[in-house]
Structure formats: C-alpha cells, structure tokens
Amino acid sequence: MKIYVAFFLILIGTVVCCVPSLAQKKDPDPAGKHLAKGSVLFEQGKVQASLDEYDKAIKASSNPKYQSFAYVCKGLIKYSSKSQDDYLLDFKKAVMLNPANPIGNYEYGKHLLENGQRELGIRHLELAKEMYLNGMKKVKSGDKDALSQQANSEVIRIETLLNMAKRKSPAYTEARILIEKRESAKAMEVLNKGILENPKNGELYQLRGELYFEKHNYTEAFANAQNAVELASDNNSKSVALLGKAKAESYLQKIDDAERDYKEAIELDPNNHMCQCIYGEFLLTQHRTLESIPYLQKASDLAHANNLDGVDDIDKLLELAKNAKVNAICYKAKDLSRLNKDEEAMKILDQGIIENPDATQLYYLRGAIFAFQRKYPEAIKDQDKVIEMSKDKFLKSGAYLNKALIAVSLKNDIEAEEFFKKALALEPNMEEAHLKYSEFLASKGRNEESADHSHKALQLGVKRKLFEEHKRNAQSQWSVKQK
Prior knowledge:
By secondary structure, the protein is mainly α. It is built from 24 helices and no strands.
C-alpha cells in the first residue's frame, strides 16, 4: 500500500475531551481494542463491521465513559452512511450513560435541532458548551494553550448553532432540515407557505433562492436573492443574499453584475470566508489567477483561525492559484503512480524539481513514491527536504507522518512514535495521522491511547464526508459550468 497522504490536509476541528481520565488509567479497558478496530473498519468502508465492533466495545466494557464513547461513534457512522435511522437513539444513550460527555451532548443537541426538537436541542448544546468551558479549568497548565485553542473552536461552533436555532424562523429551520434530508420538494412547500404568511422575511427568500439554484433555475434564484437583498435586516444577511445573487448572475452570464455583487458582499462582511472563497474561485474561472490569490488567502486565514468547515477545499484553490504549474506536475505524477507507472511519474517529478527547486510538494510526492518502492534512504531524504524547506505546516506534518510510516516499516518503534507526535503537533486535526497512530498504538497493546486517536480520526472523517457531500450538492454544478 502506498505511503503518502493528500497534499492538502484536513482541518475540521473538534476537541476529544469527553473522557479525559481514560488516557491516565493504568489498567486497559477491554473496549479499547474494539474502539480502535471500529474506526479502522469505517475508514475502509465496512460500515456494518464497524458498527459491530462498537457493539462489542459496549458489551466488553463496564465503564460508562467507554460505552458512551462507543454510542457516539455508532451514531456518527449511522448518520454519515445513512445505514440506519436510529442514530438519534445512539446519541441519547451516549448522554444517558455519561451526562458529562460534551461530544455526546453536542451531537445529540445538533441532531435534535435537525429533527425539529428545538428546545431540547438547544438545552443539550448549552450543556456541551458549559462542559467545554468548565473542562478547561481542570487541564494541566502545560497542556492549556493547545487545548484552550481547541476548546475555544468548539465553543464557537456550538455558539453558531445556538444562534441559528434561536434566531431563525420556524419555517426556515424546518426547511433547512428538510434540505439536509434531501426532501427539497417538501422544503419548497414550507418556504412558499412561510413567504405567503410572512412576505417580509428575507431569509426565506434567500433559502428559496438556494433551492432554485440547486435546481438550475437561475432566473428564479436571482429573483429570490434580489428580494432577500432588499429585505435584509443587517449586513451579514445582506452579504449572504448578495453572494447568492452573484452566483446566479454568473450563471446568467451577467459577469459585471456578478463581480459587483461579490465585491459588495465582501465589503459588507469581510469575515465571511465563503464570500472570499467563492469570489476567488470566480476570478480563477475568469483566468484572473493573480487577482484571486488575496481573496483565497483571506478565506484560508479565516477558515484556519476559526476551524471552519471547508478549509481543505479552500487551501486546494489557494495552492492552485499560487502555483498552477507545480500542481499540474503533482497531479499528473499522482495519476501515473495510481496506474502503477511509477518510473514515468518519477521522471516527471525529477524534471519538475530541476525547474522548480523550491517546490516542496514535488519532493513530498517523490519521497512517497520512493517509500512505496522501499527505497527508504531516498524517501527519508526527500521528506527531510520538505521539513527543512516548507513553510506550509500541513505539508510538513504530512512529511513527518510519512517518516513515521517508514519507521514502522523498518520496525523502528521509537522513531515512529516520535514522528507521529511531531505530525500531530503541527496539525492536531489530521485525520490520517490519528488513524495511523491509532493502528500503531493498538499493535503495541496500548489500547486506551489507541482508542483516543481512533475516535478522533472517526469524528474528523465523518465531518469531512458530510461536508464534502454538502459542498458537492451546493456548488459543484456551478464550478463545473464556469470552468
């Protein structure tokens, strides 16, 4: 199996602190190995086998914290894979077993909101927020800085959900839930009725415009967005409405109007990372690459600073804009490598490095192919080059992960663990690093530590897959048509 990870690593953050005492326990809990295996099976696409392992973890353990942990994992998998409809019950069981589980309360509260149980959902989200804040008071001083940043990002995420739940109209919330369930026709009925009852509610027009946009009815999408702009009660709402209007205008080939509205949306809310990102992507489609970079950079900075969803896609666009030629070399080499044409890929990478000696992505990929060919000294040399030269913490983190996997292959456990830790120190939310470190720890019988990392990998994987699915549904058609 090839030892390399994607160029652009995932940053969709969450704090796994619902069982802070587990890593400190001396006696391993029998559930640990099942938790670790369940995460690996899910990543392999074996949904039912993964759920079976979490059931084994629940039966094997007498510790309600482990059992709660496992029920959260089950709920996330069922919701993500749409394999079963009783995911809400799993989140409820997680909270009943361990009421002090902040992740359990967060997931239960969030999904209660999605199922129309607003008051109960708000109550559990507020409990989760309080738990994250109180948990920081008990953290050792040496760990406080890193954990405080993670906890703060979780609090921000929860506050965003709470604000929407408390501020949005019932019709908007109901329609949004129906959209998430892919029941667009019912959502449209709810919005039509809501607008008839309250024709001055701009957010309903804005959401109806999104639905029309997804149905490729850009004329109606434009008209609804225009109404939303006129009815907007604050800069944030107007900015979102203008973004929808600009997207429709770009499809209607009103390029000058689209650009004007994109700029106004950004001016009204410069901290809206999606406005910055989509305008940057719009400029790329207009072959204005240099102009796109400041907007994509701003979007990336905002997404990273606030642990916002979609940061990996933003970084892909930013990197593409900064170095289109280098990326083209990388993508071509990766495609050749996937077709087992490694020698051809290496020739392309060697020439690319001669022409672009500072392009650390090329060293990174060449090192990965060297590792696959078991040319470990050459692989390590290239990964060290990335660590030495790259200013990109994601790429450096990936290089450390690759060195860790090489050390595992060479049965050098001390170095392997050192490099795993360095990878996660640079990028605490790298899904692949948590998963591989979990497998390594499980192979050494360190099941409790393995369980912590496997759960983190699972949670990051679920969020990534949900976001990717949502983004594809919302924006892929627009991007393809513009290109």
